[in-house]
Every structure is written in C-alpha cells, then in structure tokens.
C-alpha cells in the first residue's frame, strides 16, 4: 500500500515493512510459489510420458555410423518395435529406466526456465497495446531454455546413460552405471566435475530451440486466441495453445536432441573425452554424411508423441495450479 508520504510498505500481521523489504519478501514468495508449481507439475508429467522418452533415446542411437565403425551393431526396429523389444527383452519396468534422473532434471530445468521466462518478459517489456511481441518472446524463450538446461545438464547426462543400460546388457557389454548416485560418482571420478557437463553445448542448443517452440509458441498462441477469438482464459484455450507448442517444439528440437544423445552416450577415454566425436559439429557432420539428413529426425515420432501429452499435461496442470494458488495466469 502507499503511505501519505508515497512510500510503499507491506503490512503482515503487526509488522510493517518498508519498500525494499516488501519487494524482497514479495519476490521471495513469488519464486517459492513458482518453484512449488514446477515440483507438482513434474511429478505428474514425467511418469506419464517417460516410456516415449526412453524409446526416442534408443531410436536416436540406432544405425549410428560411428558406433558401427567401432564394431557395435544395433537392429533397426522402428518406434513400436523398439518399445515392444524393450518390454519383451528387458521387462516392462525397464520402460521407466532413468526416470529418477529425469525427474531431477525437470525439477531444475522446468523450475529455472519458467521463472526465468517470466522475469525476462518483465525485463524486455510489453508494447504499448500490452502485447508481448513475437521477437521478444523468442529471445525470452531461447534464453530461459538455455539457462535452465545448462543448470540441469548433469542430470540429463546421467539419464541418457541409464536409458542405454538395458541395451548394453543385451549386447553382452558390462554395465556402466548401477544407479543415479553411482553414475554421478563414476562420471566425476573419470573426468572430474567438468565431465558432468559433457555434451552441454548441443544440450543447451536443443533446449533453446525447444523453448523457442514451447514457451514462445504457447505464450504467443494463447494470447492471440484470447485477443482474437471468443475463447476465455480456460482449459480449452490452454489445451489449444499447448497442442501447437508441442508440435513446434518437437520439430525444432529433434535434430539437436539427436546430436545431444549421441555425444552423451558415446564411450569415453581415460581422460574423460569422447572417443567417437570431437564436438557437436563433428557429430552433426558424421551423422549427415554417414546416414543422411533424415538421421537428424530419428525418433521424431516418439519425440512428438511424448511432447504432445507432456506439453498438454504440463501447461494444463501449470495453469490450474497457478489458479489454485492465487497466482495470475501465465
């Protein structure tokens, strides 16, 4: 509220706080409530869509030229064949192998990207007609996604390696990791702390593109529908916007996701460096030269089939939880 002297204060119980203290408390409350939102949404979304994420990861490794040159062969089985093969050869519960680091990853990734995007939206500012221009939404989405993924990259590395363990056992190879904690320890012992960020460049590139598709598309489509149609700020509007965002995110993010998966899954030498690829550019060149441009879209169908329900579940849950907690609509 404003005092007669024009100083903003926050009254809580018998306490009266001055402007700096009030802003600090309000900001802290905002971040806490937003992060609480992410925990709830992640707990709903990850278990529902994780089998498709595992199938996508396995497909992205199939037919990898660099692995064939090192004597490793992987059968071509397609999306359904891969999923059914996991159930038949490894057991149905293996469809959720790597789900624990996936939850850890999304707690960090989604929490950071959502809060960062809203803060960037305030910093970049709206136009005079209270619209958030598309170019600003694109910058905000890419920056938010990049920062969130960089923070969460170690958990993504562990997730990818755990997802490939079942395949390695079927090929008669010794297991690399025996759980999340062991995976972290093994990576650090072999390459130091820096090794936890192996593949972070394509990882961050992918996240920037995915969030250009996800955050930017959802925000833009939702407010376009509210301004230009009779739709209200309800689940129907949220569902339509999330459907568009899931498709755009899958289309833009799949090539970088293929490169990220291959770099993170490659074997490493004694110094912790990858044996198959020197960099993300090297991986891109080898993949396109050896398998064709279409190889960059390996796993697109399960990626989109995962992102569509993930995006729908995430945004509907996120908006509803914000409403329940008294936070304004996204």
TrEMBL record:
Q: Name one GO biological process term.
A: transmembrane transport
Q: Which UniProt keywords apply?
A: Membrane, Repeat, Transmembrane, Transmembrane helix, Transport
Membrane topology term: Multi-pass membrane protein
Q: Provide a GO CC annotation, any one.
A: membrane
Where are this protein's Solcar repeats? 29-123, 132-224, 233-324
- Please state where this protein is localized: Membrane
Asked if the record carries the keyword Membrane, the reply is yes
This protein's record includes keyword Chaperone: no
Family according to the record: Belongs to the mitochondrial carrier (TC 2.A.29) family.
Protein name, please? Mitochondrial uncoupling protein 4
The organism of origin for this protein = Oncorhynchus tshawytscha (Chinook salmon)
Q: Lineage from the top down?
A: Eukaryota, Metazoa, Chordata, Craniata, Vertebrata
Q: Which gene encodes it?
A: SLC25A27
């Amino acid at each position: 509220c404003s005092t007669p002297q024009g100083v903003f204060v926050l009254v809580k119980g018998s306490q009266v706080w001055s402007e700096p203290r009030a802003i600090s408390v309000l900001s802290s409350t905002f971040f806490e409530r937003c992060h609480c939102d992410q925990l709830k949404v992640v707990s709903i979304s990850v278990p529902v869509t994780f089998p498709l994420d595992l199938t996508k990861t396995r497909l992205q490794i199939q037919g990898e030229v660099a692995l064939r040159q090192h004597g490793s062969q992987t059968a071509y089985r397609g999306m359904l064949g891969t999923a059914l093969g996991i159930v038949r050869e490894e057991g149905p519960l293996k469809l959720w192998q790597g789900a624990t680091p996936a939850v850890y990853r999304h707690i960090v990734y989604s929490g950071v990207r959502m809060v960062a995007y809203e803060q960037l939206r305030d910093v970049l500012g709206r136009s005079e007609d209270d619209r958030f221009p598309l170019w600003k939404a694109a910058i905000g989405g890419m920056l938010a996604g990049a920062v969130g993924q960089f923070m969460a990259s170690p958990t993504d590395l562990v997730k990818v390696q755990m997802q490939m363990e079942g395949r390695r056992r079927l090929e008669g190879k010794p297991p690399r990791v025996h759980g999340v904690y062991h995976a972290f320890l093994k990576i650090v012992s072999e390459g130091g702390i820096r090794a936890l960020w192996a593949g972070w460049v394509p990882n961050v590139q992918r996240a920037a593109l995915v969030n250009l598709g996800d955050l930017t598309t959802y925000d833009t489509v939702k407010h376009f529908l509210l301004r230009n149609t009779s739709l209200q700020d309800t689940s129907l509007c949220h569902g339509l916007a999330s459907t568009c965002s899931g498709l755009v995110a899958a289309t833009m993010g799949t090539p970088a996701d293929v490169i990220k998966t291959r770099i993170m899954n490659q074997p490493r030498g004694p110094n912790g460096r990858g044996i198959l690829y020197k960099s993300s550019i090297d991986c891109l060149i080898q993949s396109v030269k050896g398998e064709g441009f279409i190889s960059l879209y390996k796993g697109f169908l399960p990626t989109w089939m995962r992102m569509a329900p993930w995006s729908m579940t995430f945004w509907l849950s996120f908006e509803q939880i914000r409403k329940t907690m008294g936070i304004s609509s996204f």
